[in-house]
Design a protein that fits this description.
Distance between the termini: 70 Å
Order of helices and strands: HHEEHEEHHHHHEHEEHEE
Radius of gyration: 60 Å
Length: about 450
Amino acid sequence: MSLRLRLSLLLGVLNLGFLLVLLALLLGNQRASIAEEITAAHRVTVQLLGTAAQTSGLTGPAPLVMETFLRRLGRVRANEIRLYDSRGELRYVSPPSHYKQSRQAPEPFARLMTPQLEATGFDLPGARLLIVPDASRAVLDAWDDLTSLVLLWLGFFVVLQVSLLLFLRHLLRPAETLLVGLDQLAHGRFATRLAESPVSEWRELTSGFNRVAAALERGQAEQRQLVLTTEALAANREVTRFIEAGIEAERKRLARELHDELGQSVTAIRLIATSLARHAGAGAEIAAGAGKINEVAASLYDGVQRIVRELRPAVLERSDLAAALEEIAREWRQQHPDIALTLATRGDCSHLGEALTLAAFRVVQEALTNVLKHAAARRVDIELCRETGTLGVCVRDDGRGQAAPAGMRRGLAGMRERAALLGGTLAAGAAAEGGFCVTLNLPLNEKETPSS
């Protein structure tokens, strides 16, 4: 049921209740008025006929004189006069009233409104006079007045209800507009706006609706922009993945070329130098030069091997992250003995897959490079932990612990991108106990990387 219909019914019920109360008061007043009128008319009639009855015997036989008097008197309002002879036969009865002749009020209404008054009788010599109160005309007048009032009220009620419906339709039109607007919003048309209503309450509602619609429109635009940005980011990450794969492939190729080509060449130089030094006819100067060549070639060979290990540690071919980090730790201790480095491993960190192993390895490499360049640390701790579904790596130093400089921020951005490519996260910042901390968390596919 609509609000407009409910308000119309409510006002109709209130109006009907008001009418019923008014009718009850009116009926009570009418009944009291009829009773007072009939009582007064009956009292006057009784006094008149009582006087006539007392004097009727002076001018002749009482029955005959009284009958002649009554016929001349005719109808007395609100009373019916009857004359009986000594045998009890009716000799005279008042003629019917000509006022609203042949009409009577409805019986239930007549019973309600007619006052209960006793008839008054007079005994005459040889006759009896009976005066009976008759309220039928007064009751009929009350009925006609009541009917006119009810008809007037019905006309007023119809006009009132029609006017009320038109007024409510005009008043509640903003609500219908608001419902239409909400339906538009439900269908995703957030550009919908409502016109302001002249009614202050509706104006506040329409203003609130417009604000909500504007916020939803902004949110939709931001969501679209977010989708576009996410798609662009996904495309960029795909490109980055291809670039990283290309870089790793190039590192692998360079490491192989250095190991195979340059390594063989250096080995050949060392063999030639050794051969020259051992030649029987070689002088001391030639032998010393050959030894120097052998020494330089050996140093060159060691440098090539170090570069090869940095480009592509051999343990990465087996996807053994723990072994790769152990090799980094050994080289660190040899090259930087003044900075203590510890490595703690929990869980089986082998057989993680090439992508995860490379990502974690490069992050540790970059973190250690940043320690050397920016931290001025005396100690570095590396923690490697494999738990159910997660691989965690933490590199913590006891250095300055300040905000990362520009060069370090670029390295951290690269590390974060590596983590994001594999669905992981990387956090970097000052540690609570001092120094700087880089934490990497990568999700594991346990079906593809079973633990022993």
